[in-house]
Amino acid sequence: MKLTQLLNGLEKKNQISVDTEQLKIKGLADSSADVAANYIFVAISGFRSDGHDFINDAIDKGACLIIGEQGLSGLPVPYIQVENSRKALGILAKNFYGDPAEKKWMIGVTGTNGKTTTSYLLKHILEDNGHSCAVIGTIQNIINGEARKSSNTTPSSLEMHRMLAESRDDTAIVEVSSHGLSQFRVEGVQFDLCLFTNLHPEHLDYHRTMDNYFQAKKSLFDHLKVNGCAIVNTDNEWGSKLANLLEEQGKTVYATGKSAQSSIRIHGFNTDASTITLEENGKTDLICSPILGVHNMYNTISAYTAAILSGISKEDVRESLLRFDGIDGRFEINTLPEGQKIIIDYAHTPDAIDNCLNTAKDCGAKRIIHVFGFRGDRDISKREEMLRLSASLSDQYVLTLDDLNSVSYNEMVDTLRQLQSDQGNQKGTVLPDRTLAIKQAIEQSEPGDWVIITGKGHEAYQQSYSMNTTSDKETVCHITRTLDNIRLDAVY
Length: 492
Ligand SMILES: CC(=O)N[C@H]1[C@@H](OP(=O)(O)OP(=O)(O)OC[C@H]2O[C@@H](n3ccc(=O)[nH]c3=O)[C@H](O)[C@@H]2O)O[C@H](CO)[C@@H](O)[C@@H]1O[C@H](C)C(=O)N[C@@H](C)C(=O)N[C@H](CCC(=O)O)C(=O)O
Ligand SMILES: Nc1ncnc2c1ncn2[C@@H]1O[C@H](COP(=O)(O)OP(=O)(O)OP(=O)(O)O)[C@@H](O)[C@H]1O
Prior knowledge:
- It is a single chain.
- The chain has 492 residues and is of the alpha/beta class.
- It has 3 domains: 3-96, MurE/MurF, N-terminal domain (Udp-n-acetylmuramoylalanyl-d-glutamate--2,6- Diaminopimelate Ligase, Chain: A, domain 1, 3-Layer(aba) Sandwich), CATH 3.40.1390.10; 100-322, 3-Layer(aba) Sandwich (UDP-N-acetylmuramoyl-L-alanine:D-glutamate ligase); 332-491, Mur ligase, C-terminal domain (Protein-Tyrosine Phosphatase, Chain A), CATH 3.90.190.20.
- The protein is 33% helix and 21% strand.
- The chain is built from 17 helices and 21 strands.
- β11, α10 (237-248) and β12 (252-257) form a beta-alpha-beta unit.
- The chain is globular, with a radius of gyration of 24 Å.
- The termini are far apart.
- Pathway: Cell wall biogenesis; peptidoglycan biosynthesis.
- Residues 329-457 form the Mur ligase C-terminal domain.
- UDP-N-acetyl-alpha-D-muramoyl-L-alanyl-D-glutamate binds at residues 32, 152-154, 177, 183, 185.
């Protein structure tokens, strides 16, 4: 592709020569390791290293043009200085791959909790009604029906545009994280629908304040196509604020919530039957939420609204919801022959833990035994609240290891012990080996009890534990001898 086409929309700080404009570009790379002959290398100043330090490597590998933020001169190949390299990468990737988002029905989902659940509910409804849906998100990326490993919730803009270009699906659902937004990973992607699930304290190690975190999430809505719609859960205070701000900007907002002003108004939740009564334009509708918990009912409402705005009839959406068979690691229930329920859930925020434990209570759990831990290198400000909630809502809890990341085993165990002694109560114990913690919880459970294992959900273990299993699901299967894969028990 000719460089002039690629640079469309890019603000340059320096002029480039007519000869440079004629360069034929074979590819783009933001990692020197991926550079080949006639590539553009975009140097990004990162959190761990600085791409500008790898410019010479990139040139040795065949880069014919460098883009970066520093005022550099004297390079053996042309250099373009830009204000923001991550943003530049998105613009170049969009041009290089021919603006793939423009050719699809694009749906972006953001919020602290519920992005994955809402995305999979929506994917199911759309596919059940004849569409083909790509999903780019936390568990995996699904392109043309094939699952690919995902290492970030929202991949870099380069991978994003590449995957969208490879996808022959008519629709793409993208989970958009706040990190992704603040790092311009959806630069050049415009959405037909943008969904906001909720905002709760999380990632404050990165964003510092809730307002910064909110601003990052809000920026997704700058990516709405001209006729695009925002779908916002206004029962969350930040959602309500967002809906007002977007309306002030003249955007089309579908507010979902209990208030009378909502476009889709919630009249009531029936937690026993897992149903929701909704009202739109004076007409009420009863829909089933196929995953337990009021929090999952909110996800169902977001998916329902997005499906309707995608052109599916209410009747078809209602029918499709009845055929949904669950998501890995999202309130997955296994009922033991003796009557205990074992739940595996990805909850790793105070709000999510609150929701999970309360769902078990609402569903009549005799006793709740909660197994959980804290991730190394992640926002530590939420730990006390997570423990406080578990100590008050569960009947017994076991503090155990979650991913250590770069934190040492001893440091995390000391942290667990310290937190238990400062904030815990007599219901709790510390048992670092996650597999033994799960075993102890299951062994101590009695018919009618719910054992709730949170934090890892669908993910594989990073550490090895004494049982040699690779995930919570495998551990539970191993302990309970449930050899069949655990699947979500029917809610209805
Ligand atoms: C802290 C953070 O967000 N880092 C993200 C960021 O990495 P970075 O650009 O800072 O990378 P870096 O290692 O410092 O390298 C800087 C540059 O030098 C280049 N380089 C480096 C080495 C080399 O030899 N040659 C070279 O060219 C790198 O390719 C890069 O372009 O940009 C990368 C590309 O987009 C991301 O993969 C990476 O996510 C890391 C892996 C990560 O763990 N991020 C988490 C915090 C995250 O983003 N999480 C959210 C979900 C949060 C949630 O809701 O749970 C997500 O969307 O996944
Ligand atoms: N709407 C919701 N409100 C509060 N908590 C929720 C909601 N939906 C899901 N959760 C909780 O959050 C956990 C993660 O859910 P999900 O994976 O759908 O969210 P996510 O936004 O994709 O999370 P992440 O950004 O961490 O990948 C669930 O296992 C559940 O405990």
